[in-house]
């Protein structure tokens, strides 16, 4: 999200500028700015509102959903952490997300190297194919994976989820790592190779240290793509193995309690921390140039 | 999961083109093998099986059911209509935000960007839940309306098509804002200044210079929003009702309630065909992979 400020020298007049020159023209400009400000403020409020109401709701005393919340309590959090069903779903999802991060990051990084540096036949076909899981609606993938997995007894299983979520997460890894590789000077790798390093040494000692911010960002995307995923999880979960997304979907649909607000707050905090870390890492990287 | 997708639709800024392809075909194939294995097991084989199931019995009977029954055709058309309305709403609400992000001073632009990224980074499930809480019969919005005397009885807000459009617009708006933002950011302010210098007013300069040059971003964002809206499941399933059935929720109903898998497979194939048709038609404008680096 690095904003290129050097280019953006044209600014809106500030309210102070406008009121400093009391002509009729600047009066109408001031009115226009105030109206536009209220309009855009409304849009930004609309964008933030759903994320922001989750926290106060999770701390509310009342059993039914009320806003503004009455009283302050952590009982919905303890209800979440004490409920064996919620905990089972959370651990199941965490295990899947961590394994998916590993498989998607490794397989995606390997493929990105081949796409950027390799001489692959059907390269553009392969590239289009890897992005396929992003374009195909997840409901279709969910139904398709259920039909493929259920005769093999893979529904609700760790391995079934791992395959499904790896496919869903891998496009983010390929896109992120491809961009990093394209910004990395290939002559450095060639230099390492001509100095006697083998392919693996050149990769781990020269290439990887330079693309590590991209790979780390890719890993975060892969983790969240799995941990927050609900549509495919809805279809490939079963009674024995239920992901957090599936459990939340069911509870929102049938049994709307403030425990969901507590779980939501935990999810929002996890996403914001991870994505915030990626953002800070990249901000530091771009400053050092 | 869709959240990081928005990050993928901005403009490119590759400093060096990588012409050096020094991995041999064999090494390259070895590097893509794990990925191809995963795609075969978790994507190609299941989708192929699903399409095969839709033709089960060697007939087109399941497709005939879709196209003979006005109810199913209505769902198909209202899916396209809802996707279109959501795209237009995202464009109208998102353009001013993108414009502001590209033109404000650093601190304020960061604050506006935070308002775009925080919802984007929030799980779709959490956002849909929040809309359920906001819109339900004794929810926050109804309470506010009754307390302020706008209405005496709670309005039916949730489980309507309006609720689906509202919540989907919220979920998909960042996918519209980010490509427009990066198109506007790439636009040198000199152009607008030149137009103003030559006598154009602020509105004329916007219409004649800024707007046409932002169109690549507008198209990229619109196609992204439209394609994602066509197949959206979680939000319409939680916020919508029987009166606001979309293709995705109809497929969900066929599989979870009616257990009619071949018919669900036929519906899925139709939805897939419609989605791919739009992607292929507009693939030049849809740039999934460009400029992720400008975003995170």
Automatic annotation (TrEMBL), chain B:
Gene3D superfamilies: MetI-like
SUPFAM superfamilies found in the cross-reference section: MetI-like
Family matches, as InterPro entries: MetI-like, MetI-like_sf
Record keyword Lyase present: no
Location of this chain's protein in the cell: Cell membrane
Pfam families according to UniProt: BPD_transp_1
GO CC field: plasma membrane
Name of the protein this chain belongs to: Spermidine/putrescine transport system permease PotB
């Amino acid at each position: 999200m690095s904003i290129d400020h050097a280019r953006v020298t044209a600014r809106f007049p500030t309210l102070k500028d406008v009121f400093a020159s009391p002509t009729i023209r600047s009066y109408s400009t001031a009115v226009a700015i105030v109206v536009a400000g209220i309009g855009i403020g409304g849009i930004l409020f609309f964008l933030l509102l759903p994320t922001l109401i989750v926290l106060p709701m999770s701390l509310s005393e009342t059993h039914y959903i009320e806003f503004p919340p009455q009283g302050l309590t952590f009982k919905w959090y303890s209800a979440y952490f004490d409920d064996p069903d919620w905990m089972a779903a959370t651990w199941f999802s965490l295990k899947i997300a961590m394994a998916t991060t590993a498989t998607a990051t490794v397989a995606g990084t390997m493929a990105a190297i081949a796409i950027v540096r390799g001489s692959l036949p059907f390269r553009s076909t392969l590239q289009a194919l890897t992005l396929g899981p992003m374009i195909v609606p997840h409901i279709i993938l969910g139904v398709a994976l259920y039909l493929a997995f259920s005769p093999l007894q893979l529904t609700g299983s760790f391995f079934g989820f791992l395959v499904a979520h790896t496919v869903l997460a891998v496009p983010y890894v390929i896109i992120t790592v491809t961009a990093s590789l394209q910004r990395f000077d290939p002559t450095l790798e060639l230099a390492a190779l001509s100095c006697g390093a083998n392919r693996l040494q050149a990769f781990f000692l020269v290439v990887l240290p330079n693309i590590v911010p991209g790979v780390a960002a890719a890993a975060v995307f892969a983790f969240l793509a799995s941990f927050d995923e609900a549509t495919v999880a809805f279809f490939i979960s079963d009674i024995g193995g239920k992901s957090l997304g599936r459990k939340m979907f069911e509870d929102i649909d049938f049994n709307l309690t403030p425990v969901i607000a507590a779980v939501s707050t935990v999810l929002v905090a996890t996403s914001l921390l991870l994505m915030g870390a990626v953002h800070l890492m990249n901000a530091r990287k771009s400053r050092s140039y | 999961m869709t959240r990081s997708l928005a990050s993928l639709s901005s403009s490119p800024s590759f400093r060096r083109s990588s012409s050096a392809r020094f991995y041999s075909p064999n090494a390259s194939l070895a590097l893509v093998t794990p990925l191809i294995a995963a795609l075969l097991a978790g994507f190609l084989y299941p989708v192929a099986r699903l399409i095969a199931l839709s033709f089960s019995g060697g007939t087109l009977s399941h497709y005939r059911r879709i196209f003979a029954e006005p109810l199913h055709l209505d769902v198909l058309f209202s899916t396209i209509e809802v996707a279109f309305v959501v795209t237009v709403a995202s464009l109208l609400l998102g353009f001013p935000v993108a414009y502001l992000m590209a033109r404000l001073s650093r601190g304020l632009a960061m604050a506006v960007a935070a308002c775009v990224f925080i919802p984007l980074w929030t799980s779709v499930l959490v956002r849909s839940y929040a809309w359920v809480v906001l819109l339900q019969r004794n929810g926050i919005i109804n309470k506010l309306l009754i307390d302020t005397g706008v209405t005496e009885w709670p309005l039916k807000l949730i489980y309507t098509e309006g609720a689906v459009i509202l919540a989907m617009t919220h979920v998909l708006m960042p996918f519209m804002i980010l490509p427009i933002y990066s198109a506007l950011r790439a636009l040198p302010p000199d152009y607008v200044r030149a137009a103003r210098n030559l006598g154009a007013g602020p509105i004329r300069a916007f219409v004649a210079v800024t707007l046409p040059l932002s169109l690549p971003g507008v198209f990229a964002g619109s196609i992204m929003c439209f394609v994602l809206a066509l197949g959206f499941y979680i939000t319409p399933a939680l916020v919508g009702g029987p009166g606001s059935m979309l293709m995705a929720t109809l497929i969900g109903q066929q599989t979870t309630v009616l257990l009619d898998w071949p018919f669900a497979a036929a519906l899925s194939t139709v939805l897939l065909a419609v989605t791919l048709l739009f992607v292929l038609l507009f693939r030049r404008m849809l740039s999934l992979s460009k400029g992720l680096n400008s975003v995170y």
